[in-house]
Amino acid sequence: MSSAQPMKIVAIGGSVRPRSSTELALRAVLAAAAERGAETTLFSGPDLLLPPYEPGAVDARGRHMLAAIEAADAVVLGSPGYHGTVSGLVKNAIDHLEELRGGSRCYLDGIPIGCVATAYGWQAAVNTLGTLRVLAHSLRGWPTPLGIALNMAGPGVFAEDGSVLEPSVGDSVRIMADQLMSFGRIPAVAPS
Questions:
Q1: Rg of the chain on CA atoms, in Å
Q2: What would the pLDDT profile of 181-192 be if each residue is shown by its tens digit?
Q3: Pairing assessment for the beta strands 74-82 and 85-86 based on DSSP bridges
Q4: Cα separations (Å) of 69 from 34, 46, 134, 167?
Q5: Could you tell me the CA-to-CA distances from 97 to 107, 164, 172, 173 in Å, in that order?
Q6: 0.85 exceeded by the pTM?
Q7: Is 35 helix (H, G, I), strand (E, B) or coil?
Q8: CATH 3.30.1330.40 fits 8-184, yes or no
Q9: Where are the domains of the chain?
């Protein structure tokens, strides 16, 4: 990526429910990155209604998502915490990244990955965040030092318009955007 080109950051996550808490959190991270000059894309809601992953049999919607991910300089993975882990919908979208194994960059090799988890309780949020970080490592990406776990059972985190109400969450969103932007600009070292 040349310094004249904007960074491309792609987020995947949420649920099929419009304006889910995970989608709002991902939108907040992408908005903070866009304020810093990034070009952003979100795959959430209906975008995640992909057929169950089958190697080599990816539909047009899946190919569109994979093309965006392959061109990305950084990725944000977000999931609601369902029963203490990543939702099946988000896991299926992540499973589709297996198609990138033979590309110019194997999986998400060497790029920063922000991880965001939401749940109605701290245990599920924290467990889900841990799972997302493991998935980022498995995809050869670098999880940002700051991950975001949000307990949606407490006071309002997001306003009706999707803006962040909780100052500490706003701080976390900005820090993650800064980390994605700065780590995404570090040149990759070609294997010798």
A1: 16
A2: 998 666 655 554
A3: antiparallel
A4: 17, 17, 18, 30
A5: 6, 30, 27, 25
A6: yes
A7: helix
A8: no
A9: 8-184
